[in-house]
Amino acid sequence: MVEHTGIRVVHRGGSKINFREPVITSDSRFLLCGSGESVKVYSTSTEECVHDLQGHTDLVTGVVLNPSNHLQAYSCSADGTVRLWDFTDGILIKTFIIRYHIFSIHVSEKHVGVLFVVVPMANEKELFQLVAVHLPRSGDPEVEVGELSAVLCDVSPNPGAVSFGTGGEYIAAAKGLQLEVFFFKKQKSYRFSLKSGMNKGINNSFTCISCHPKEDCIATGHADGKIRLWRNFNQKKEYTYSTLHWHHNAVNTLRFTPEGSTNLLSGGIESVLVQWRYTQENQKDFLPRLGAAITHIAVSPDGSLFCTSHADNKITIILSSVKVSAIIQGLVKDDCVRTDLMIDPRSKALVLNGKPGHLQFYSLHRDKQLYNLDIVQQEYIHEQGVDQFQVVKAAFDTHGDWLATVEERRQKSSELEINLKLWSYDEQTQSFVLNTTVTAPHEDQITAMCFSPSPETTLLVTTSLDGHFKAWLCQLAKKIESASWSCDFVGGYHLLKPGCCCFSADGSLLAFGFQEVVTVWSPTSWELLTTLSQPPGAVRDLCFGRLSCSKYLLGTSTKNQLCCWNLLTCSLEWNTPMDVSLLQADPFSENMAAFCSQSGSTDLFVFKPSEPRPLFSKKALCTGKVERAIFAPRDQMLESSEEYSQWLNRSQLYFLTQHMDLMTFSTKTEEDRLLASSKQLMVDDSVAITPFYLLLGRHKQQQQEKQELLTNPLAERTPLPQGSIAIKELLDTPAHVLPSASFLCSMFVRSLLVSSSSAR
Amino acid sequence: MGEFKVHRVRFFEYMPTAIRAMSFNAHTERLALARVDGSVEVFNFADRYFQEKVIPGKDAHSIEALCWVGGRLFSAGLHGEITEYDLENLRPKYSLEAYGGPIWTIISNPQGTHVAIGCEDGTVKLFEVLAEGVQFERNLDRQKGRIISLSWHPSGTRIAAGMMDMIRVFDVLTGDVGGCKSRETVVWTVVFLSDHTIFSSDSAGKVQVWDGHTGTLVKTHQLTKWDVLALSVSKDESSVVAGTSEGTVVQFQFIAPNLQQQEKEWVRTRTFKNHTHDVRALVEIGTAIVSGGMDTQLVVRPLLEKFEEKCFASGLRRIHFPHRNLVSCAQKARLLLLQFPGQLELWRLGESDGHGKPGDILPLKTKPEKLLYLKRKGKDHICCSALSSCGGWLAYSTVSSVRLYRLQTDNNISITKVLQSPGCLGMWSLPVRTMTTELGLALHLPVTLKETQSKLCITLAIPFSHNHVSLFQLHCMVPMYSSCPSAMGIHPTTNNLTMVHADQQIFEFSIAEKQYTVWSRKLQMQGLHNLWLNRDTPVTHVTFNPKNPDQILLHDMYMFCIIDQSLPLPDQKTQFYNQMTLRSLSEQERPSHLHAFKVCKSFQDLMCMRLLDDQSLVVVERPLMAINSQLPAPVRQKKFAT
């Protein structure tokens, strides 16, 4: 098997936007945040993604504004480079190669041409140091940085635990129970440590840090929810601190607002933004119910906007009057995905469970959450240990007209509660509407669920641990709202527990995996056609081949077997010993993807069922098991000629790693295309209004309008009242020659009325 | 091990009273503390916070404020009198009526020449301090409303006075008035700093900073919803502490907001919460903050940044119990005498004939029984009391008189007064650990200790017959030691005097040979174990085991200890608290691990520990929980998740 270098595993779409602190530009119009391997530029007013700054080849670990040019930003990445961007135009200006895994980046106005980055210590991987990077002055777009000088040793890799003090005079870093302040002028550092409260059950270790913009005061957040304000720290002994306490859990992030009305903002798991008045700390303002734990807070340089990142992959933009103005929502990833990854056939959106009790529809192309569908329709209680309904299964039919969901709740003492819900698509509201609820469709957990792909009937099959499978048939009516569902057939096989089910591509065959036995049924007559068995090991996954390979049925078993049966001969075509954790068929081609877990990491094999030879293989794709994957259709076909990447031409394979990172494969042609599109000079159409713009811009605008009128006759609209002759007359005539106002008034009002003839 | 049968006594309902005022004398390092019942205690901060002197209170004689003038201690209270104390003989020296109604505050000027008092009628009266007393000098301008608090400017030329709704600044020489106004509040305390900044704390929960020249408000710190009752400034004026009704102490520090600049401002910094109730009295002594209040405990909170290394003074200290005995015990008659400020109680211990395993609770055959309730005569509170070991004699003393009673407890309880002597107070009262000895006579009596210039002189007062008191002066001087003895006892058979000092050193002095014993020298040569030296409460009683002359029994608040002089002394490397290890060892291995100090910590909050003649121990506990439960309810505070 050959390893192909042209295909990379990348973060694209659905990546975390809350991984690192976002940055608000100095004019407060844009918000920059690292998202997977790119830096996204969002508009703070419209929430739209304006630019996607691509270039890094690994996770972006920090974004900061260039202190000497407010239209540029630095970003650092785990690939060992720092890149300088022009974010208004989306252009990569320079790349500085540092050749270390960079964990965070810090800049200060006082240190021009110097970046401070956190990198691992030379010999120990677990320890990190803060180094100063002197940027070489050179015109080349790619510059190797040779000179690194260590500033602080043993710092935390968390970027929130390092902060620059007043005017860059000192830098403060916290780790564990120790705070270290380094003064650049004196080249001296002071360390202050807290007494461990572990024996009293208190964890008072430092979590985050922020320095006052004008005064020498450092605010630190602690794991026990306290905030300490340190003063007088330029000496070993006489330092002092005061304590603020509101949070009942760890303070995740702290930020001082800029000078003027200096306040301290803090946030934590309570999902409440707390604003403390500096020097009057017992006065505080709250912004509650932000939805999820606050992970970062950023403040615009002029202090007019705040933004908070949340644990549910969301950025909330907040006005300085503590009002939410916009929300940028990314793909919500809980600690686990219970439903499979699915593609909504209508919107081509990725569907999975998002907020508790909801399904989220996520557009992978636009990298934006489209909407949430409330499945459970019950209030979610934010408390630990409360057992609540959760969406565990969901399935779409081929056209996206029907959605089936299963929710379950298992309480300790009482029995399992299961609801099967069927949702019909409503064209008018462009959303799914609940059609039928089946309470307790099975006596035990539902293991698999799928719709029949055949166009004649709308049929849903569910299998359950109670040893039965049920077929649910839709009695179609004239209107889809009055359609009703009923149970058509209940089947089983020797009281074995069915684990999976699969329809063939045309819907004429239905296969169930009953532990070691595969049974094939005809869904029209409900007779058992054949049984296939290849012990040992229970069947884990079943998949019919498609298109030219539709005569094959593939199955994986728990005892490391991948089998391919020929349905025409009802015999085993081939099998190989491999521990396949997930088998996924591409709906647009014959290809199958098999994820095999091997010694802690996952390998991927892409093959056609007709031949047991992989088209593509990638060893050690990621660490841990891959449990969920999906082939998503491309909006534009790729014309890749290389054999190894042809399988990616029509669809794209997304998968979720153990750490809930959504990854995909990117080919060379695709990257070239993306690079080309980003190089196009994109002119922002909402340029700031300056006198220069007024002179030239208006002229341009008029020209554009003329062109539009010529090209698009529909754009002609009724003229606004400003253009009417009556008003012009009213405004242009000198005041001393105008008739009395009472006379003018009736004339003016009449001019505003739309006559019945012109309205038609 | 089951060596002793223990009477665990919990019926002593001792209740300390709230701390009302404090004053610290930085020169002598003595802290004077006044309680609500009018008693005054003097702690020696140089000698491990040892409670050196106690002056018992008097009915209807509460104290509102204390002040030191040089080495002299003055107090004033709502009874309207200024009192000076005789710190030698531990009693009030004289009281002087100030003729201004109740006095709310008394304060001395930094030069030590005058004291000023704030009166209910709105006058500030100046008194000149003379060698023999104080003399009224003049009144400052009379104000409407009472003067609650006073603070003298360090130069001694101005006084700031906190009143109802108002702060006034008086010029001491001319009596002129300037003022700063606050609203609808009681200004509980004011502090006048040398740069003419005035700090005030008030009943609205604010600490306010004023400019003393112009009378303008500089800054307001809202500390609490309740009152801020106490303020204190450090000697170098870099820190001010405020005590609130919530039991918190808040520190303000004079800090430069920008490290490079010299300009400083007052910033609220740390908050200490060591009290459950109001902090009524507060002193910042440079290296620590001393606070006391309604919850009756004295807390010494060290400022850790002032200490280079860990030492005795760098630990938090809480002083709950007096450093003296309030319980005496008749070993033969199995009686306990409990001393309260207003009365004495005589109890007979319960009996049990049960046998059980070590650690078992034995059933009682007879319950403990209160035999006698003896109310004191006169207004003065009881300062010490004693009971003879046969249970036939009972004596108590106030600052003005000594009373001796004959007691019969066999069948019908009777008490007859034998002696009332107003004369011998001087002897009685001094710092006094009541010490008991047995010289073949039925009655033991307290022994007074006088700290003379170079030596300790022990005077024994032993009444021989029913109506005659003889005084013996043992002309034997014990070499002086820098620390005050906290407990002492004379061995019944060897006549050795065992002394334990406030710094936890132990000496044994042979009265017959007039020198330290061999064991004592050996102990001093080798030094005591660090764990012993670092205990934070002083030993309050020494007694001996009559059956085993080698054993000395001592106790403090948290432990009792049996010192066995026949066993080897522990050195620094041996495990000091070895009782648990010994228990796990076999019989053969034990002797090699034994050392002289056997410490038992199974009884906490000890008031008294005695060994009865039948080899059973009496342990009097007063759990702090029980004291706390009897305190009035603290101010209501919002608690998280309630």
From TrEMBL, chain A:
Keywords: Nucleus, Repeat, Ribosome biogenesis, rRNA processing, Transcription, WD repeat. SUPFAM superfamilies: Quinoprotein alcohol dehydrogenase-like (SSF50998), WD40 repeat-like (SSF50978). GO terms for cellular component: small-subunit processome. Residues 341-660 form the WD repeat-containing protein 75 second beta-propeller domain. Transmembrane segments: none annotated. One of its GO terms (biological process) is positive regulation of rRNA processing. Gene3D superfamilies: YVTN repeat-like/Quinoprotein amine dehydrogenase. This is WD repeat-containing protein 75 second beta-propeller domain-containing protein. Signal peptide: none annotated. The gene is WDR75. WD repeats lie at residues 53-95, 439-472. The keyword Oxidoreductase does not apply. It comes from the Eukaryota. It holds the Pfam family Beta-prop_WDR75_1st. GO terms for molecular function: RNA binding. InterPro entries: Beta-prop_WDR75_2nd (IPR057644), Quinoprotein_ADH-like_sf (IPR011047), WD40/YVTN_repeat-like_dom_sf (IPR015943), WD40_repeat_CS (IPR019775), WD40_repeat_dom_sf (IPR036322), WD40_rpt (IPR001680), WDR75 (IPR053826). PROSITE patterns: WD_REPEATS_1, WD_REPEATS_2, WD_REPEATS_REGION. The keyword Plastid does not apply. It is found in: Nucleus, Nucleolus.
Automatic annotation (TrEMBL), chain B:
Transmembrane segments: none annotated. GO terms for cellular component: 90S preribosome; small-subunit processome; t-UTP complex. GO terms for biological process: maturation of SSU-rRNA from tricistronic rRNA transcript (SSU-rRNA, 5.8S rRNA, LSU-rRNA). This is UTP4 small subunit processome component. It holds the Pfam family WD40. One of its GO terms (molecular function) is RNA binding.
